[in-house]
Amino acid sequence: AVTVASAAFQMELDTRHDKYERLVKLSRDITIESKRTIFLLHRFTSAPNGEEILNESEVKLDAVRRKIKQVAQELIGEDMYQFHRAISPGLQEYVEAVSFQYFIKTRSLISVEEINKQLIFTMEDKEETTNMTSNSHDKQPHTWSLKVTPVDYLLGVADLTGELMRLCISSVGNGDIDTPFELSQFLRQIYDGFTFIGNTGPYEVSKKLYTLKQSLAKVENACYTLKVRGSEIPKHMLADVFSTKTELIDQEEGLP
Predict the structure, then answer these.
(1) Are residues 93 and 198 in the same domain?
(2) What residues have CB less than 8 Å from 164, skipping those under 6 apart?
(3) For Mg(2+), which residues are the binding ones (predicted)?
């Protein structure tokens, strides 16, 4: 009886391990596709037709959501937290991509509820028929969802700030003087929000606070330079403004 029990236990462990590996692979795919979407969205500032870029990014995000649907299917009936480490990197990257697109469209921050609303999946007809034949006794639910955890959301938003800083640099490069000021305000609000959570939040979140502070300082400094020097400042000099400011922050913080 003991050997039967241990064999069953071993089988369960193997199954769990295989599932974990599949989720790690899916998470990697989600990360890659989300990064590609972010890369595409950066062309928005210089594209003659921004609408096309947004439409293309929507197609890409739909493809990412199809991958997330596979993750959700793997997790039906499972405790998500046992597999959270496998899928967290992909979900953070997805949050970053989807919130970047949302910011470009609305100049505001997408909520975690809004993100999760798009992660409710239904079974398509063709899936249903194949399931009926293969395992009719093991009926899957018709709708299921995957919830991005508050921590994944916060970490994704923290990474978004780095993209917004790049957006600021490229806007200035394209002679768009308004965007940096909008970004500066927006980043300040995010930074204040993170400071409010402060050290009470998870360690990874407080670690991101430093990078966030850097991004904010760079953007605010560029805005200051624009305000004082106006648009006559050569564009390449603004890029220098961004880099020198980082060094100053590093010295202030006493970081290597």
Answers:
(1) no
(2) 100, 103, 183, 186, 187, 215, 219
(3) 96, 163
Of 105, 87, 112, 113, the residue nearest 34 (C-alpha): 87
Does residue 179 form part of some domain?
yes
Same domain, 117 and 197: no
Could you tell me the residue range of the domain that residue 36 belongs to?
Answer: 1-124+142-148
Tokens describing residue 205? 């979140």
3 and 104 assigned to the same domain = yes
Instruction: From 91, 85, 154, 158, select the one nearest 118 (Cα to Cα).
Output: 91
pTM for the whole structure: 0.82
The b-or-e profile of 22-35 (16+ CB within 10 A means b, else e) is ebeebbebbbebbe
What is the spatial distance between Cα 118 and Cα 110, in angstroms, rounded to a whole number? 12
163: confidence class by pLDDT, cuts 50, 70, 90: very high
Is 163 labeled as ligand-binding?
yes
pLDDT of residue 138: 53
pLDDT digit string, tens, across residues 241-255: 655 544 444 444 444
Take residue 221 and report the two structure tokens written for it: 């400094």
User: What would the DSSP string read from start to end of 166-190?
Assistant: HHHHHHHHTT--HHHHHHHHHHHHH
Helix (H, G, I), strand (E, B) or coil at 78: coil
247 labelled ligand-binding: no
User: What whole-number distance in Å separates Cα of residue 150 and Cα of residue 135?
Assistant: 35
Query: What's the pLDDT tens digit per position in 17-52?
Result: 999 999 999 999 999 999 999 999 999 888 788 899
